[in-house]
Write a structure and sequence with these properties.
The complex is a heterodimer of chains A (230) and B (899). By secondary structure, chain A is of the alpha/beta class. In chain A, 41% of the residues lie in helices and 22% in strands. In chain A, helix 2 packs parallel to helix 3 and helix 3 runs parallel beside helix 4. The two termini of chain A are 14 Å apart. The relative contact order of chain A is 0.11. Chain B is an alpha/beta fold and 899 residues long. Helix content of chain B is 51%, strand content 16%. Chain B has 28 helices and 25 strands. In chain B, the strands form six sheets. Chain B has a six-stranded parallel β-sheet, with helices on both faces. The longest helix of chain B is centred in the last third of the chain and has 68 residues. Chain B is flat, with a radius of gyration of 46 Å. The chains are: A alpha/beta (230), B alpha/beta (899). Chains A and B meet through helix 1 and helix 5 of A and helix 23 and helix 24 of B.
Chain lengths: 230, 899
């Protein structure tokens, strides 16, 4: 994607020092902000295509920045977080972040997630009918799932679950989000049920249920449906 | 699954189940019961023992009395026998059962003959059945033999039937709690036959008595008792079984009995009758002794008697209570109502004919006033004559005082009478003689009042009735009025003296309560264990009428005397053993208890929810007599108070420890989150840079690539400094840091640091200014360099663009090194706090890189080198911070001496 503009919000100059050249070399126009306030005011005069937001900002809590961002704009946000702070990631996703990247990260991973996020935001208007991933084709309106050509037999609930994941392909979805959408708000804490269903689903659609490549587990956070394009 | 109410009742009784489970871990007791000596109990026991041995049971003979009988001796063959303990008693060697050897050997099953035997005085327990209880507690099964006459509750019946006094007794509960009772039964004719054949052992000394004992009539009666008791037991067991299995059956009644123990001789019979009634009714019972307040019993004989009755009651399974009060009936009934008593048992008191005029006997009074409680009056045959209640004669000095007082007051009254007669024309002055009587009664007691009454009688007659100055009376009415006055005087005197006693008693009681209250208040303010123990030892000694009180606390498997008043230097073996018993079994031991009663002290455990926390030893003032009821209750309350206070002080200690732990936890959490942030950031830069270079490679410009590589280098350096900081900190904390003690050239170190910082902090300016001829200091050059480097790093981080300035000069006997920056500075309030670990102005997340350890490490290192460090802000031009380090310089004369 050439000339897409990115706003990088991070207070550590070392990180900026690494991100700037890499992002520029990947074809992005990079703008920097070192505090939450700077970030929010930057939005007022220029709307970036993507925001990379570090959660550890000196003046405001990163989640607070995220919340305020979301009021102003629907721009995709990728959040930089620490490895063992699952609750932080879940909250960020719940508050409207599109994806997260754990520090320390590989540049390739960050770039890939950025691409996915941009693609999804551009295609947001189109309601994806068919979602494909690794030999699997999910036709949502017709409620048909084929695997390497052969139809897979799913129970209605399993299909609903798969459809939800597929509709938000390549994005991490929290347990609570999934449970609320597929089972209803009353069951949003029933992660055991979800685990069982995911297991059953994987057994039916994955080549190797032990090393699932389509439905990927985001440890402590939720699940992600990976399409072949990412 | 529906459940109807019928199911509810059919659940097994939890108490029965609990009792059953308790029994499981204890040893099992099997009693071979016989009607009389010679029926063959020991033989039967040994025969079974042989069978058990054949079956492989680990069986040991603790003690078996064969009395030389050949058949019985034969049964000993092949069975391991414990050696007996030899005791020296009054010059004779007695052989007793060695309980310690038995406990050490710990067999599966042990045989101990003659349960009712009394042990030699130096034994641990006065009675063999107590030894057996200890064996059972230790998990050893015991077989024993017992004659039915030795059962506590039957002792008096047997005495009555056979005419032979029973001396040694075993409490009924021992038999009740036995797992097995085997009745060894033969007909009286057979037994008599055996006696004739000489097969029954009879000691020479008792030959006469046994002739009376071994009559057909007696033996039949005893046999009946034995059979009946065994049958009752089977019945009891059935009921227990019913309860465990929840089969519908009769439940225990909710009766509660009260047995009144009095001063009279047949109180023991009353107690036994009460025990039998309680057993029959399956009721709990309390034995109560009411002591007349203010008139503690003087006669030692009576005291002992009452004591005996109460202990008997305790052995038979009663709860014992002592209460003191003024009116026996009122106190008894009050107690009964408080304890929800349903039936009262008392003896028929032989009221003296005279007092029946004045008031009803105790029995009648209770019968009259206990409207809601059933009363059983135990009738006994003519026993030994009752102890007459001795009239309390006053002491000699009391008498003289009373007499003097009476005489004086009567004289005064005579004079007053004269006066009244002269000036007011009083005709019959006999009435005013009531005054001295009442006064004497109120002040000096009953006897003084009676003396005063008699004196007044004569004085009135002598001085006021015609013919005057003669002890004759002309007018019969006057005589009558005088007699009436005398009677009134005596009665009034007695009433007044009763009032006086009552008031005295009330005063005493209120004093006791007051001192208890004060003590508990004092205890509530003390928290150290030692203080509590001392305070309580003092108080118990004072208020409990003890000659010595000591408090012991458990320590490393033993006991330590923590407080004693008056101070005690040593404890003898017996006292230690008793104290340890109290600690381990949570039971009193020592003087006047069932364990080691010959010890001087009585040891009581202080028990709380967490077990026995201390032991209190009390030496009574008069060991021959038991403690008075008042002293007993005082000591109990004080001990309870002390136990609570000890518990509280332990809790306080624990909560302090818990708070410290929590504080540590908090610090650890802060450390962890600080570490994770500060280590992660450089790693992120490094990983990001490396992966960028690899993935993007050619897409990056050359300059960008160079910059990325540089940033990797720098961040790696920062990472390694963080780690070095943390290691230093932990070394300083653990005291492992021992700086070298060389001569350090400060100027050299500074210049060295400058070089390094130029390389590390590119783009940042570091300027130095060193005074010439700086004396050396004693320390570690490397550490000093590190400190300076950290400070410069700080200055660059927090300082403005002007960079850091290092300055070194000499000031008096010290070398002063300062590092200054022109940054935003530090608030005056924080000037000390910045040296704390992890101190940051601002939130944990929103801060510059650095674990905040820098300055605290700096201080730690400087101190380790014998210097001081402080911060100053503002430093230059109203901005910035200056860190000032001061080290003692080495004077020229000392420079020659190397480290």
């Amino acid at each position: 994607m050439s000339d897409a503009s990115v706003l990088v919000v991070d207070d550590e100059p070392q990180i900026q020092r690494v991100l700037r050249p890499s992002l520029t070399a990947s074809g992005y126009e990079v703008r920097e902000a070192a505090t939450g306030r700077e970030a929010l005011s930057a939005l007022s005069d220029h709307s970036p295509d993507l925001i990379i937001l570090d959660l550890g900002l000196p003046d405001m809590d990163g989640k607070e920045v995220l919340r305020r961002l979301r009021i102003l704009t629907r721009t995709p946000v990728i959040v930089l977080s620490a490895r063992d702070r699952e609750s932080e990631k879940i909250t960020a996703l719940d508050l409207g972040a599109d994806d997260y990247v754990e520090k320390p990260f590989a540049m390739g991973e960050l770039l890939a997630r950025m691409r996915t996020a941009l693609r999804h935001s551009q295609n947001a208007s189109l309601e994806a009918e068919c979602v494909g991933a690794d030999g699997l084709v999910v036709n949502i309106p017709k409620r048909i799932v084929t695997r390497n050509g052969a139809p897979a037999k799913l129970t209605p609930k399993e299909f609903d679950l798969l459809a939800f994941l597929a509709r938000h392909a390549d994005r991490p979805l929290t347990h609570r989000e999934i449970l609320k959408a597929v089972w209803g708000p009353a069951h949003q804490n029933d992660s055991q049920t979800l685990r069982v269903f995911i297991g059953q689903l994987r057994a039916k659609i994955e080549d190797n249920a032990a090393a699932s490549t389509i439905i990927v587990t985001e440890p402590g956070v939720g699940y992600r449906f990976m399409t072949s394009e990412s | 699954m529906a459940r109807d109410d019928g199911d509810f009742d059919r659940r097994p009784d939890p108490d029965a189940l609990l009792a059953l489970s308790d029994k499981e871990s204890r040893g099992k007791l099997r009693v071979f019961l016989g009607a009389a000596p010679g029926v063959g109990k020991t033989y039967a026991m040994l025969a079974r023992a042989q069978t058990a041995k054949a079956e492989g049971v680990d069986i040991v003979i603790g003690l078996a009395e064969t009395h030389g009988r050949v058949e019985t001796l034969a049964l000993l063959a092949g069975l391991e026998t414990l050696a007996r303990r030899k005791c020296d008693y009054r010059g004779r060697i007695i052989e007793e059962f060695d309980i310690d050897a038995a406990l050490a050997r710990k067999p599966q099953l042990i045989l101990v003959d003659e349960l009712a035997h009394t042990n030699a005085p130096d034994s641990r327990h006065p009675k063999r059945w107590q030894d057996v209880e200890e064996l059972l507690d230790a998990g050893i099964d015991v077989w024993t033999t017992l004659n039915v006459q030795h059962l506590e509750s039957l002792a008096d019946v047997v005495s009555r039937v056979t005419g032979v006094a029973v001396r040694e007794t075993v409490p009924d509960r021992v038999l009740q709690n036995a797992n097995d009772v085997i009745l060894v039964d033969i007909t009286p004719e057979e037994l008599l036959q055996r006696l004739k054949e000489g097969k029954v052992y009879v000691p020479e000394t008792a030959r006469r008595a046994t002739q009376n004992f071994f009559t057909p009539r007696n033996l039949t009666a005893l046999r009946e008792l034995a059979l009946r008791r065994t049958a009752e037991r089977v019945d009891d067991q059935m009921v227990d079984f019913l309860r465990q299995g929840a089969i519908e059956g009769p439940w225990a009644t909710a009766e509660r009995l009260l047995v009144c123990v009095g001063r009279d001789a047949n109180s023991e019979a009353v107690v036994r009758a009460g025990a039998r009634l309680a057993t029959a009714l399956n009721a709990t019972w309390i034995a109560l002794y009411v002591e007349r307040a203010g008139q503690e019993e003087q006669s030692a004989e009576v005291v002992r008697h009452v004591d005996q009755s109460l202990r008997l009651a305790e052995r038979l399974g009663a709860e014992v209570a002592r209460v003191s009060g003024d009116d026996l009936v009122t106190e008894t009934l009050r107690f009964a109502r408080r304890e929800n008593i349903t039936q009262i048992v008392l003896g028929r008191s032989r009221a003296r004919p005279f007092s029946r005029l004045l008031r009803h006997s105790l029995t009648e009074e209770i019968l009259r006033r206990s409207t809601d409680i059933a009363v059983h009056v135990v009738v006994q045959e003519d026993g030994p004559p009752q102890h007459k209640r001795a009239l309390r004669l006053p002491t000699l000095s009391q008498t003289w005082l009373g007499f003097g007082g009476a005489a004086l007051s009567v004289t005064m009254t005579v004079l007053v009478g004269y006066g009244l007669e002269r000036w007011l024309g009083l005709v019959n002055p006999s009435v005013i003689f009531l005054l001295p009587v009442v006064l004497c009664a109120a002040r000096l007691g009953m006897w003084s009042a009676i003396i005063a009454a008699v004196l007044s009688f004569f004085a009135c007659d002598f001085f006021f009735f015609d013919p005057r100055y003669e002890l004759t009376i002309s007018q019969p009415q006057e005589f009558l009025s005088l007699l009436v006055a005398l009677a009134v005087a005596v009665i009034t005197g007695m009433l007044a003296s009763k009032m006086r006693n009552y008031a005295q008693n009330m005063r005493q009681r209120s004093q006791a309560v007051q001192s208890l209250f004060e003590f508990s208040r004092k205890l509530s303010t003390i928290t150290t264990l030692d203080d509590i123990l001392w305070a309580s030892a003092l108080q118990i000694q004072k208020a409990g009428e003890a000659s010595c009180v000591m408090m012991l606390i458990p320590e490393e498997g033993g006991l330590k005397v923590s407080a004693a008043w008056p101070p005690v230097d040593q404890m003898d073996a017996g006292e230690l053993a008793a104290a340890r018993w109290a600690l381990e079994k949570s039971e009193p031991a020592g003087w006047r208890t069932d364990t080691l009663p010959n010890v001087r002290f009585q040891f009581r455990p202080l028990a709380t929810a967490r077990g026995v926390v201390a032991v209190c030893g009390i030496e009574p003032k008069t060991p021959e007599e038991p403690l008075s009821a008042a002293a007993e209750s005082t000591i109990s309350s004080l001990i309870e108070q002390t136990a609570i206070a000890i518990d509280r002080s332990m809790l306080v200690g624990e909560s302090v420890k818990a708070a410290a732990l929590e504080e540590n936890e908090k610090l650890r959490t802060i450390l962890l989150s600080a570490l994770s942030h500060d280590l992660r950031t450089p790693l992120t830069s490094i990983t990001g840079a490396v992966t960028s270079l690899r993935e993007l490679g050619e897409k990056l410009s050359l300059d960008d690539r160079k910059d990325l590589l540089l940033s990797i280098e720098e961040e790696a350096g920062r990472l390694s400094r963080f780690i070095a900081n943390m290691l230093d900190m932990s070394r300083i904390e653990s005291g492992a840091l021992s700086p070298r003690s060389d001569l350090v050239d400060v100027a050299d170190v500074i210049r060295n640091v400058l070089e390094r910082s130029k390389k590390t902090f590119l783009g940042k300016d570091t300027s130095i200014s060193i005074a010439p001829d700086l004396p050396p200091i004693r320390g570690d050059a490397a550490l000093l360099g590190q400190v300076l480097f950290n400070l410069i790093d700080n200055a660059h981080k927090y300082g403005g663009p002007t960079g850091a300035i290092v300055h070194a000069r000499r000031e008096g006997g010290d070398v002063v090194i300062t590092v200054t920056d022109e940054g935003p500075g530090v608030k005056p309030a924080d000037l000390e706090r910045i040296f704390e670990k992890f101190y940051r102005s601002g939130r944990i997340d929103g801060r510059k890189a650095g674990t905040g350890l820098g300055l605290s490490i700096c201080r730690g290192l400087v101190r380790a080198m014998g210097g001081t460090v402080i911060a100053q802000s503002p430093a230059i031009r109203r901005r910035g911070t200056r860190i000032i380090m001061r080290f003692p310089a080495i004077s020229e004369s000392k420079q020659g001496v190397a480290a």
